[in-house]
Design brief:
This protein is α+β, with helices and mostly antiparallel strands. It is 27% helix and 31% strand. It contains three helices and five strands; from the N terminus they run E-H-H-H-E-E-E-E. The longest helix is centred in the middle third of the chain and has 13 residues. The termini are far apart.
Length: 91
Amino acid sequence: MNMGCEAVVYAVSFTKTAEEQLRKLDKAIQARITGTLERIRIRPQHFCKRLTGCPYYRIRAGDWRIIVDIRENEMVILVLEVGHRKNIYDR
């Protein structure tokens, strides 16, 4: 039964840095991260946690973290960084 409510789907975009970080990872980890990003495209705020003292969000994908900027006005999830949880917050 369709009530006329269409799901709004965000586009996912990568910075050059994030693209390089993802490319260096094992294929299974890449698949896990891209799968996670694919799943959150409908309501990204529901799955993300805001970083303290920063306008960006983090997404968990097992032991891996994805740092993103959710651009509401453009309907884009911009992936800024991808890394292991023990290294990602050092910056």
